[in-house]
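Section handout 9: paired folding examples.
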Amino acid sequence: MKQSIGIDGPAGAGKSTIAKRIAAILQIPYLDTGAMYRGVAVAAKRHGVAFTDEAAIAETVASLDLSVRYSDSGEQHIFVDGEDVTGELRTEEISQGASLVSRVPAVRDRMTELQREVAHAQRVVMDGRDICTNVLPDTPYKFFVTASAEERASRRVKQLKESGQPADYETILHDIIRRDRQDSERAYKPLYCGADTKRIDTTDMTIEEAVEAILSEV
């Protein structure tokens, strides 16, 4: 496996933005692994499967044709059963669904296989919940990007308002705390910062400062 860069962390910490910038600077592909779990959630919704029905979710992912493709401009697209579902991935329903289906062992195992296939083929920057602890345990470049729940909620509110969408701070903060609990307390391959992973708290950092902190280690 090539020496890819792994970035883990909770929702809203800025890890995807940071990972994309690092990939652009190093001129290597960026893989948004969270989008893959969102693809599973889209598939479950289309099949009428409840996100909490673990047996049905496992059955769905076993026969699921999910692939990652890149446009000519390098933009990542998620295909489910041959259809580009990228435009459906960022709704609040699918966000919550992704957090729930990611707790199913069969889903995590299938996504891990696909992510490792990408990393075996080329050096990439990956971000997610268990990249450093599970997907790329042997890479020397492991980072855990985090921020306070309050700061992450504020960033989300700003992002939504800038796009013209309604945003309630208390509701978003509650959802972030709930998702953190789901991700860190799940029984199978939970989110945590490993002993050999460098922790970067972006609460009081700009994106540029966080990018520099990682690049200085790579």
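Moving on to protein 2 of 2.
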Amino acid sequence: MVVLPGRTELPRRRALQVELSQLGALAEAQLSDAITAFERRDVALARQAIADDARVDDAHRLIEAEAIAMLSEERLDALGVREAVAAIKVAGDLERVGDLAKNVAKRTLVLSEEPKALAVASGVAGMGRQSLLQLSNVLDAFSGRNVEVARAVWGADDNIDELYNSLFNETLQAMMRDAAQVNACTHLVFISKNFERVGDHATNIAEALYMLVTGKALTNDRPKGDETPMTIVSRPGEAASTDQ
């Protein structure tokens, strides 16, 4: 049994669901704060997003321990086993989202020292908002056990990948035009990659939900459109190409 702050004792399976929902809310809020801090160059909010990662880590550890205890100490039906396994997987993905949000916030502190924001930063922020929407949608789907919404999130990951591909090239082009922007642009590349990874974790959660509800894995090829490892960046004014 688990005792939650301000609550009476709950059966372990129900308590695990509540704690997972709380962790999702924490990770979503941390990511939202990191994005807002990046958009506004808000140093105080960036530091708060960094500090909040400790709460996400603590919640992750608690859920993992409870799920393992549930698997080892209780006689579970098939659904109960899937619930415990899904909790471990989803909590791990949410912990990583927290790490990515913290990284965005740390890089925001560096970018706040730059004399002005780069034009490409608005596109990176937009990508961040898209990744946050994906996370929010899949968490709502998980709470409601909505497989159709989960499949929609799973299928939309290539949209974030396409944004990342475009921003990657645009940012590198900015570096080539002005060497003074190399430091800021490097941080922007990493921030956009962080947002692309958030989309991947949202996709992981969608897959975990599908397995939880149906007992089956998604059988289609997982959408993955990150082309940056094969991108050849051209000089400004020339078209970029992708090595096929």
